[in-house]
Amino acid sequence: GDSVTQMEGPVTLSEEAFLTINCTYTATGYPSLFWYVQYPGEGLQLLLKATKADDKGSNKGFEATYRKETTSFHLEKGSVQVSDSAVYFCALSDRVNQGGKLIFGQGTELSVKP
Amino acid sequence: GAGVSQSPSNKVTEKGKDVELRCDPISGHTALYWYRQSLGQGLEFLIYFQGNSAPDKSGLPSDRFSAERTGGSVSTLTIQRTQQEDSAVYLCASSFIVDSNQPQHFGDGTRLSIL
Fold first, then answer.
1. How close does chain B come to A100, measured CA to CA in Å?
2. By C-alpha distance, which of B13, B12, B36, B34 is closest to B22?
3. Which of A42, A93, A106 lies at the smallest CB-CB distance from B100?
4. Torsion angle of alpha carbons B78, B80, B86, B88, nearest 10°?
5. Contact at CB, B102 and A107, closer than 8 angstroms
6. Which end of chain B has fewer CB atoms surrounding its CB within 10 Å, N or C?
7. Is there a contact between B105 and A101 if contact means CB atoms under 8 Å apart?
């Protein structure tokens, strides 16, 4: 079945450091890919998405490119801030008979120190 | 309301009791999803609704779990004869239509603790 694997955390960075959180997926159909973020004490929020190969999703300085050849959707940010500290979830939704349900990775906790 | 609303925000109950969790989706959203977030299992899909119908119940862990949606709006997730392994945060999400491209909007969840 479909699955998502993302790098384990926690990831600890200093402010202004470069961030990469790796995400790879397995899907039988044609998935859309998402990054969701959960800030401390808050609910899940959509961060960005890409719906087809080579699409780049971006938001709040974060970017991720849908790479079909490597089945990856790595999250990057050039300069992280303390306010980016959160748990990040990579997810897919398969178009073929899946009804839009999301399959999530395990989540990666990011801690940014001043 | 402006967002997905879930109630109660916290629920503590004794093993063996029944619980009902409520989700009020964003107005006009026809698709509604239930997920469970637990330490050991991460975020798992439970069930989704298209209108009042539930085409996919494959994520419900056992027959103690059931859900319904009435009037194309509010949904309730019921857990009968609760067990300690049911302790988790239960999340509800809604989207405008059932489509893999549609972003899902999540509520803050119900934290369920079984004593």
1. 4
2. B34
3. A93
4. 30
5. no
6. N
7. no
Pairing between β-strand B5-7 and β-strand A86-94 as defined by DSSP bridges: unpaired
Sheet strand arrangement including A19-21:
A19-21, A75-77, A62-65, A56-59
A95 contacts B48? CB cut-off 8 A:
no
> Please, how many CA atoms are within 13 Å of residue B69, restricted to the half-sphere of its CB?
25
What are the DSSP calls for B92-107, one per residue? EEEESSS-TTSPPEE-
Note down pLDDT in tens along chain B; length 115 residues.
579 999 999 999 999 999 999 999 999 999 999 999 998 778 999 999 999 999 899 999 999 999 999 888 999 999 999 999 999 999 999 999 888 788 899 999 999 999 9
d(CA A16, CA A91): 26
Quote the CA–CA distance of A105 and B4 in Å, as a whole number.
23
Exposure of B79 in the CB half-sphere (CA atoms within 13 A)? 27
Nearest to A85 by CA among A112, A106, A60, A107: A112
The shortest CB-CB distance from B98 to any of A32, A94, A99 is to A99
